[in-house]
Amino acid sequence: MDHPSMRGFDVATFANSAALAETAAGDWLAQAGEPQGELTPRFIALAGGRIAGRFLAAAAARARTLGFKFPSTHFFWGDERCVGPDDPESNFALARRHFLAPLMIPEPQVHRIRGELPPSQAAGEAEAELRRFAPVGQVGLPLLDLVFLGMGEDGHVASLFPGEAEEVMSSPAVYRAVIASKPPPRRVTLGYPVLCAARQVWVLISGAGKEQILRESLSSTGRAPLARLLRLRPQTRLLVSRD
What we know:
This protein is α/β, with parallel strands linked by helices. The protein has one domain: 3-Layer(aba) Sandwich (Rossmann fold), CATH 3.40.50. Helices cover about 35% and strands about 20% of the residues. The strands form 3 sheets. Strands 1-2-12-11-8-5-6 form a 7-stranded mixed sheet. It is globular. The N terminus is likely disordered.
């Protein structure tokens, strides 16, 4: 496993997705504090996708072994599909199955995006909920301690897809409705500004067919959403599996 440091990001590579998930889970719990006295981070945005499921399952298993609780952590989401909370496509449902339910995270600490609502309404309610709990950063945006993201074959992160106009990408909206280029198309996502303002962003990258877009995203001329995020943030952590 190597850890080259480049410009505003660090890259750690792993032999497979299981090793990636285990390391990310261990690092997160070590950072969050001791089992009897959790410290930070407190405001977390979770991701969806296969690698997110593996990571959350690994984190839950490790937390149970350690007797680790999350008494002061509030969980939000980086994006959500516009489906109900019990739909197989729901990112909330994924987190509930692999992490929230096994650890019996109290409902008041879970702030899902209400994907069953009209997208604009869901985005507005999600922003209001995040602003209600998270502190405000220097740029007037709610400050997340840690955001977990995945990356798609086209370089999308959260539900920020290629092809958006500059004025859309620069929107100050905390959450906004988007039409994705892959199903299900209607989604709600955090925007670039709040992702850039987060204290930490970890991008978990696994799955076939992503090597080329990752290479392009790491270049100074990359055009994919991940490339834009890396240029805008002072530091981002990427965890990449070779499989």
